[in-house]
Design goal:
With about 290 residues, this protein is an alpha+beta fold. It is about 25% helix and about 20% strand. The strands form three sheets. The chain has a four-stranded antiparallel beta sheet with strand order 1-6-7-5, with no helix packed on it. Strands 2-3-4-8 form a four-stranded antiparallel beta sheet, covered by helices on one side. It has a two-stranded antiparallel sheet with strand order 9-10.
Length: about 290
């Protein structure tokens, strides 16, 4: 499931694009189909939360994987491994060495593709909360006066603005903090010992700080892992405490993991993009996670 760490890893895999020139453009989104990036150099590729950005020429290409999106990399002219009708953007790049073959990247089944002037970047991301995987975020043991502290404090401030809301929904809201998805939300709430529906006001500012700090630490430790590990056990199928484990025994107490939903469909937007409060699946241990904090 694509979350902030997935997009960070994708960005890392695409760093070879930097400094290359686009040799062919094919954007299969009606609004941008006539735009061309051909002949333009790639200045930078970077993630922000679950969003991927490419600064090409004077334009930024903004994409989101949502649930099914992938970027495939091929030698130009070779057969695609996914159906052509799923392609939403195709870009070819100059070879690394003279006489080499062009490289082609294809964005399949992307949640969206947008192009905008580089000068509009700040306005484009202003609705998003701080990026939980921002390298400038403070690390455990670092001087709290370090500049990254602003990101953590801003995330806490935004979450505390709605004390009646569940902490589980608040962590998933990209307007509060960008990058946390449903798997991390489930595992973080288990590690905290709190039910996902516990109200923000009940845990208070100290509790929200604890949740944000733990989210950052766990995501940072997993940011380069091929498979996320929450339990410390790298064996296949042993990495999660609760996510996707409905009716299975809790790894701590043996109680059956429960599954339900959290949120509602009354608020507009997508929680992975705009921070809307769509209903999402939750998993929890009824013995290890408290709903009413004493």
């Amino acid at each position: 499931m694509p979350e902030g760490d997935s997009v960070l890893q994708l960005s890392n895999r695409l760093q070879w694009m930097t400094g290359r020139t686009v040799t062919h453009t094919d954007i299969r989104v009606p609004r941008f189909a006539t735009q061309s990036l051909t002949g333009q150099p790639v200045h930078r590729v970077w993630p922000y939360g679950k969003h991927l950005f490419m600064h090409i020429g004077e334009t930024v290409v903004h994409t989101h994987l949502k649930m099914e999106g992938v970027w495939a990399i091929h030698a130009a002219g070779t057969r695609w491994r996914r159906p052509g009708f799923t392609a939403r953007i195709v870009l070819r790049f100059s070879p690394q060495h003279p006489g080499g073959q062009d490289i082609e990247i294809v964005g399949h089944s992307l949640g969206f593709v947008r192009l905008f002037p580089e000068s509009s970047y700040d306005a484009t991301i202003e609705h998003l909360g701080p990026d939980i995987l921002d390298p400038q975020w403070p690390q455990p043991g670092h001087d709290p006066r370090w500049q990254g502290i602003a990101g953590r404090d801003e995330a806490v401030r935004r979450i505390m603005q709605r004390p009646e809301r569940s902490l589980g929904a608040a962590l998933l809201d990209q307007k509060n903090v960008a990058g946390i998805g449903n798997e991390y939300r489930a595992e973080i709430m288990f590690l905290l010992g709190w039910h996902p529906a516990v109200p923000v006001g009940q845990v208070g500012a100290r509790g929200v700080e604890k949740a944000i700090d733990l989210s950052r630490r766990v995501m940072w430790e997993n940011r380069l892992e091929a498979h996320r590990i929450f339990t410390g056990d790298r064996r296949p199928g042993m990495g999660n405490y609760v996510f996707g484990r409905a009716s299975k025994a809790c790894r701590r107490c043996g109680e059956a993991i429960e599954k339900s939903s959290l949120g509602g469909r009354f608020a507009g937007g997508d929680p992975d993009v705009d921070g809307g409060e769509l209903e999402r699946i939750i998993w929890w241990c009824p013995n290890c996670q408290e709903l009413e904090l004493g």
